[in-house]
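tool_call: predict_structure(chain=1)
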Amino acid sequence: MRTAPDSALNLLVTGGAGFIGSNLVLTLQEKFPKAHLTVIDDFRSGDFKNLAGYKGDFVAQNLASLDWNRQFGNDRFDTIFHLASITDTTNHDQFEQVHDNVESFRRLLDFARPTRTRVVYASSASTYGAATAASSETSEAAPANVYAFSKAMMDNLAQRCARETPAWVIIGLRYFNVYGPREAHKGVPASMIYHLSQQIRRGERPRIFKHGEQQRDFVYVKDIVAGTICAMQGKESGIYNLGSGQARSFNDLVQILNQSLGTKFEPDYIENPYAHYQNFTQADLTNAKRALGYEPRFPLEEGVRDYMQWLYSA
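tool_result:
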């Protein structure tokens, strides 16, 4: 990335009205107040309310059919953050998932290639499939659903482009189990932290799968945003894990939510209806720390406390 004062920075975020995207956009706006920001979103998995206070440009377009050159002409961006995708893992339309996620990325890369514009894109820890130990970036992709498959195909495409044009920096970020502000609009696909807190607030016992021993790398969105911004300075192409680096059980989560909300609800254990379910996720952060300087700041206790204060402060 070229060195430039904030006033000369031209940054674009796809999916900027979504959960992670909106948090990224508003943080970029705060961090680089003089930069020119552009958001692209079609609102399939975003909401305009997430961008309250946003001062930049907005393009309402479907990336799977967007003509980038016609839309932006000779505009040149310093970094394109590509967070747009169909994120609902319960959407089992294989054509829609793969076409929209992969072809949108292909069109973006075709636009960025001639100028070697830095691309930072959202991959996913779901590409690892079933795991029993911390996942490193060298682990083979083993997607268990079509969403994860589409992300694995995006990784393949990014790696091929990076090999063909070594001077072009393309950085993929495998987000683990992200939670935090501005996710409520997602409905069912919102984090279990959001849903369990809602159940507790309604006076209900939080429902988790038997027997609550499943473990997740729950990572606060503020850490994800910080890691994504770190990728603006990454010196070479690569795919990196972004998580908390810790696997915590569902039972732990219920206890932490009770502490944050001042309640004492016992879990309501239910059967797991999913045949293919990630019972364990944990990010090996060795490479992200080395290459990007990524250091998560929010252990689960602190992330949940901060989130609950934001969510229920009114």
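agent: The chain has nine helices and 13 strands. Proceeding to next step.
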